[in-house]
Design goal:
The protein has about 210 residues and is of the alpha+beta class. Helix content is about 20%, strand content about 30%. It has a 5-stranded mixed β-sheet. The chain has a 4-stranded antiparallel β-sheet with strand order 2-1-3-4. Strands 5-6-7 form a 3-stranded mixed β-sheet, with helices on one face. The radius of gyration is 18 Å and the shape is globular.
Amino acid sequence: MSQFIESIKVEDQEIFLLELHQKRINQTFAHFGKEGSIDLAKIFKNLEHNEDGLFKLRLSYDLDKRVRTMMIPYAIPEIQSFQLVENNSFDYSFKFEDRKELDKMKMKSKAEEIIIVKNNHITDTSFSNILFLKGKDWFTPATYLLNGVQRQNLLKHKKIKETEITLQNIKQFSHFQLINALNDFDDMFIYPIDKITNLPGNEEYLDL
Protein backbone atom coordinates (compact mmCIF):
# COMPACT_ATOMS: atom_id res chain seq x y z
CA MET A 1 0.00 0.00 0.00
CA SER A 2 1.39 3.38 -0.98
CA GLN A 3 2.31 5.60 1.92
CA PHE A 4 2.13 9.36 1.62
CA ILE A 5 3.28 12.17 3.88
CA GLU A 6 2.37 15.75 4.66
CA SER A 7 4.73 18.07 6.53
CA ILE A 8 2.73 20.91 8.01
CA LYS A 9 3.87 24.05 9.81
CA VAL A 10 2.53 24.55 13.32
CA GLU A 11 3.68 27.67 15.14
CA ASP A 12 2.44 28.86 18.54
CA GLN A 13 -0.37 26.27 18.37
CA GLU A 14 -1.60 27.53 14.97
CA ILE A 15 -1.62 25.33 11.87
CA PHE A 16 -0.60 26.95 8.55
CA LEU A 17 -1.78 26.54 4.93
CA LEU A 18 -4.32 23.97 6.11
CA GLU A 19 -6.58 24.43 3.09
CA LEU A 20 -3.76 23.74 0.60
CA HIS A 21 -2.55 20.67 2.52
CA GLN A 22 -6.11 19.33 2.66
CA LYS A 23 -6.53 19.95 -1.07
CA ARG A 24 -3.37 17.97 -1.85
CA ILE A 25 -4.49 15.03 0.29
CA ASN A 26 -7.93 15.07 -1.36
CA GLN A 27 -6.29 15.09 -4.81
CA THR A 28 -4.11 12.13 -3.84
CA PHE A 29 -7.13 10.05 -2.80
CA ALA A 30 -9.03 11.06 -5.94
CA HIS A 31 -6.10 10.29 -8.29
CA PHE A 32 -5.81 6.75 -6.94
CA GLY A 33 -9.56 6.18 -7.26
CA LYS A 34 -10.45 6.31 -3.59
CA GLU A 35 -13.57 7.98 -2.27
CA GLY A 36 -13.41 10.35 0.66
CA SER A 37 -10.26 11.57 2.36
CA ILE A 38 -8.90 12.32 5.83
CA ASP A 39 -9.78 15.44 7.79
CA LEU A 40 -6.65 17.41 8.71
CA ALA A 41 -8.43 19.98 10.89
CA LYS A 42 -10.00 17.21 12.96
CA ILE A 43 -6.69 15.33 13.27
CA PHE A 44 -4.91 18.49 14.45
CA LYS A 45 -7.65 19.32 16.96
CA ASN A 46 -7.48 15.80 18.42
CA LEU A 47 -3.73 16.13 18.96
CA GLU A 48 -4.45 18.82 21.58
CA HIS A 49 -1.09 20.39 20.84
CA ASN A 50 -0.56 23.17 23.40
CA GLU A 51 3.11 24.14 23.07
CA ASP A 52 4.37 27.42 21.63
CA GLY A 53 7.28 27.52 19.19
CA LEU A 54 7.80 26.16 15.68
CA PHE A 55 6.91 22.54 14.99
CA LYS A 56 6.62 20.24 11.99
CA LEU A 57 3.49 18.12 12.07
CA ARG A 58 4.56 15.05 10.11
CA LEU A 59 1.54 13.10 8.99
CA SER A 60 1.89 9.79 7.14
CA TYR A 61 -1.15 8.06 5.71
CA ASP A 62 -2.29 5.40 3.28
CA LEU A 63 -5.29 5.07 0.99
CA ASP A 64 -7.14 3.04 3.64
CA LYS A 65 -7.11 6.22 5.77
CA ARG A 66 -4.65 4.85 8.31
CA VAL A 67 -2.80 7.84 9.77
CA ARG A 68 0.30 8.32 11.92
CA THR A 69 1.31 11.71 13.32
CA MET A 70 4.48 13.14 14.83
CA MET A 71 4.94 16.67 16.17
CA ILE A 72 8.62 17.57 15.80
CA PRO A 73 10.35 20.79 16.95
CA TYR A 74 11.70 22.50 13.83
CA ALA A 75 14.53 24.87 12.97
CA ILE A 76 15.08 26.15 9.43
CA PRO A 77 18.33 24.59 8.14
CA GLU A 78 21.18 26.72 6.80
CA ILE A 79 22.89 24.79 4.03
CA GLN A 80 26.55 25.27 3.10
CA SER A 81 26.72 23.83 -0.43
CA PHE A 82 24.47 22.71 -3.28
CA GLN A 83 25.08 20.54 -6.32
CA LEU A 84 23.14 20.01 -9.54
CA VAL A 85 22.23 16.33 -10.03
CA GLU A 86 20.71 15.09 -13.26
CA ASN A 87 17.87 12.55 -13.22
CA ASN A 88 15.61 12.54 -16.28
CA SER A 89 13.29 9.75 -15.10
CA PHE A 90 12.56 10.79 -11.51
CA ASP A 91 8.88 11.33 -10.69
CA TYR A 92 7.66 12.84 -7.41
CA SER A 93 4.28 14.21 -8.43
CA PHE A 94 2.76 12.91 -5.18
CA LYS A 95 4.26 13.31 -1.74
CA PHE A 96 5.40 9.72 -1.26
CA GLU A 97 6.92 8.60 2.02
CA ASP A 98 9.47 6.48 0.13
CA ARG A 99 12.49 8.74 -0.47
CA LYS A 100 15.01 6.05 -1.51
CA GLU A 101 15.66 7.60 -4.93
CA LEU A 102 16.16 11.06 -3.40
CA ASP A 103 18.54 9.63 -0.80
CA LYS A 104 20.49 7.82 -3.53
CA MET A 105 20.91 11.08 -5.46
CA LYS A 106 22.09 12.86 -2.32
CA MET A 107 24.64 10.14 -1.61
CA LYS A 108 26.06 10.52 -5.14
CA SER A 109 26.58 14.22 -4.70
CA LYS A 110 29.51 16.00 -3.09
CA ALA A 111 27.42 18.74 -1.48
CA GLU A 112 25.09 19.09 1.50
CA GLU A 113 21.98 19.48 -0.68
CA ILE A 114 21.07 18.69 -4.29
CA ILE A 115 19.14 20.55 -6.97
CA ILE A 116 17.57 18.05 -9.34
CA VAL A 117 17.89 18.67 -13.08
CA LYS A 118 15.39 16.88 -15.34
CA ASN A 119 15.68 17.09 -19.12
CA ASN A 120 17.97 20.10 -18.83
CA HIS A 121 15.48 21.96 -16.60
CA ILE A 122 15.88 22.98 -12.96
CA THR A 123 13.23 21.38 -10.72
CA ASP A 124 13.43 21.15 -6.89
CA THR A 125 15.85 20.28 -4.12
CA SER A 126 15.46 16.99 -2.22
CA PHE A 127 13.05 18.61 0.26
CA SER A 128 11.81 21.90 -1.18
CA ASN A 129 10.79 24.02 -4.11
CA ILE A 130 13.28 26.68 -5.10
CA LEU A 131 13.13 30.37 -5.98
CA PHE A 132 15.66 32.34 -8.06
CA LEU A 133 16.28 36.09 -7.94
CA LYS A 134 16.73 38.24 -11.04
CA GLY A 135 16.88 41.97 -10.34
CA LYS A 136 14.15 42.55 -7.76
CA ASP A 137 11.89 39.69 -8.84
CA TRP A 138 11.73 36.13 -7.54
CA PHE A 139 10.98 33.29 -9.96
CA THR A 140 10.21 29.61 -9.46
CA PRO A 141 10.81 26.92 -12.10
CA ALA A 142 7.76 25.93 -14.12
CA THR A 143 9.30 22.44 -14.15
CA TYR A 144 8.76 21.57 -10.48
CA LEU A 145 8.69 17.95 -9.31
CA LEU A 146 6.07 18.62 -6.62
CA ASN A 147 3.78 21.64 -6.65
CA GLY A 148 4.34 22.51 -3.00
CA VAL A 149 1.79 24.31 -0.83
CA GLN A 150 4.10 27.27 -0.14
CA ARG A 151 4.84 27.57 -3.87
CA GLN A 152 1.10 27.64 -4.64
CA ASN A 153 0.51 30.17 -1.86
CA LEU A 154 3.22 32.58 -3.08
CA LEU A 155 2.07 32.36 -6.70
CA LYS A 156 -1.54 32.98 -5.64
CA HIS A 157 -0.49 36.13 -3.75
CA LYS A 158 1.74 37.25 -6.66
CA LYS A 159 4.89 37.35 -4.53
CA ILE A 160 6.72 35.19 -7.06
CA LYS A 161 6.45 34.41 -10.77
CA GLU A 162 6.79 31.14 -12.66
CA THR A 163 9.31 30.83 -15.48
CA GLU A 164 11.45 28.32 -17.38
CA ILE A 165 14.82 27.87 -15.67
CA THR A 166 17.37 25.71 -17.45
CA LEU A 167 21.07 24.89 -17.37
CA GLN A 168 21.44 27.50 -20.12
CA ASN A 169 19.92 30.44 -18.22
CA ILE A 170 20.53 29.63 -14.54
CA LYS A 171 23.53 31.97 -14.42
CA GLN A 172 21.24 34.89 -15.26
CA PHE A 173 19.95 34.67 -11.67
CA SER A 174 21.99 36.11 -8.80
CA HIS A 175 20.56 34.34 -5.74
CA PHE A 176 18.19 31.57 -4.71
CA GLN A 177 16.20 30.43 -1.68
CA LEU A 178 14.33 27.29 -0.65
CA ILE A 179 10.64 27.19 0.17
CA ASN A 180 8.31 24.55 1.53
CA ALA A 181 5.51 24.33 4.09
CA LEU A 182 8.03 24.98 6.90
CA ASN A 183 10.34 27.36 5.03
CA ASP A 184 8.62 30.66 4.28
CA PHE A 185 9.56 33.26 1.70
CA ASP A 186 12.39 34.69 3.84
CA ASP A 187 15.08 37.26 3.10
CA MET A 188 17.24 35.79 5.88
CA PHE A 189 18.01 32.58 4.02
CA ILE A 190 19.13 33.74 0.58
CA TYR A 191 22.06 31.98 -1.09
CA PRO A 192 24.30 33.45 -3.83
CA ILE A 193 24.11 31.43 -7.04
CA ASP A 194 27.74 30.31 -6.64
CA LYS A 195 26.71 28.25 -3.59
CA ILE A 196 25.88 25.74 -6.36
CA THR A 197 29.30 24.12 -6.70
CA ASN A 198 28.91 22.72 -10.22
CA LEU A 199 27.14 25.39 -12.26
CA PRO A 200 27.22 24.78 -16.05
CA GLY A 201 30.68 25.48 -17.41
CA ASN A 202 32.20 23.47 -14.59
CA GLU A 203 33.29 20.15 -16.16
CA GLU A 204 32.51 18.36 -12.91
CA TYR A 205 28.80 18.58 -13.76
CA LEU A 206 29.13 15.74 -16.27
CA ASP A 207 30.86 13.45 -13.77
CA LEU A 208 27.58 12.63 -12.07
